Amino acid sequence: MKKSLVFFVIVIFVFVSFGCNNGGESSLGTLVYNGQNFALVMGSLAVFGANGTIPESYDIDITLADGSGSNSIYLDLNSDQLSVLSVGTYTWSAVRAVFTLVDAGTFTGIWDTAVSGTVTVTQSGSQYSLQWNLTMSSGATVSGNYTGPLQVF
Q1: Complete DSSP assignment for the chain
Q2: What is the domain count for the chain?
Q3: Which of 11, 17, 25, 57 is such that its CA lies 20 to 30 A from the CA of 95?
């Protein structure tokens, strides 16, 4: 949890400070938090490498945000490839393994963490498509989608 919050804050700071967005284009997706819609215009991907002694499991974090960084979603995914976010469905788990989502959070004025759900990833060239359905610790439901590039950190 501490790693995710620190990473989340750093990425949002970079987005807001340096304008890592899609060039002012329209929304690349939507974050729906308890029925409230937020447009997503930027995304990042960070590779943290192997997950200790877990065979063929690699830590890849995704952050998707609106233009101000005020509303965003963070996804800690475990891919089966070292430097690539693998296509497939990632299911929430308290234990790291291939194709698990071990941490996720949204910031829409408050930080809220996931306790269950899935994230589906597809890819076409340099464009990723993500769809998610999560239940948060507050009881809120979070869903959404994003299709576009992911800035690699």
Answers
A1: -HHHHHHHHHHHHHHHHHT-SSTT-S-SEEEEETTEEEEE-EEEEEEEEE-TTSTT-EEEEEEEE-TTSSEEEEEEEEESSSSS--SEEEEE-SS--TTEEEEEEEEESSEEEEEEEEEEEEEETTEEEEEEEEEETTS-EEEEEEEE--EE-
A2: 1
A3: 11
